[in-house]
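for the recovery benchmark. tokens below, seq after
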């Protein structure tokens, strides 16, 4: 039986209890060993999985950079359009 020991600050920034479920050793251990044996028989398999992961991460990085640039442009437009406006206007006039 595999279970969380309680708190995992990497997964739960608030320090709350781990929400991971318990795993049966009878199920997970054969899966892990079968995966390791497959990798040992075909080292290229691990390379292929790693390259696929890098491709996915690279695509997400491009999306994030694009979204950040769009937000910068919008912020610039908002700043430019509000530069002449004042939140506080005087309602009193000099006599």
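predicted aa per position
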């Amino acid at each position: 039986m595999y279970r969380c020991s309680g708190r995992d600050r990497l997964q739960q920034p608030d320090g709350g209890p781990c929400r991971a479920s318990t795993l049966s050793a009878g199920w997970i251990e054969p899966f892990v060993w079968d995966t390791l044996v497959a990798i040992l028989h075909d080292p290229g398999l691990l390379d292929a999985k790693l390259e696929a992961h890098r491709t996915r991460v690279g695509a997400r990085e491009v999306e994030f950079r694009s979204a950040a640039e769009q937000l910068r442009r919008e912020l610039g437009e908002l700043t430019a359009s509000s530069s002449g406006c004042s939140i506080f206007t005087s309602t009193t006039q000099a006599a």
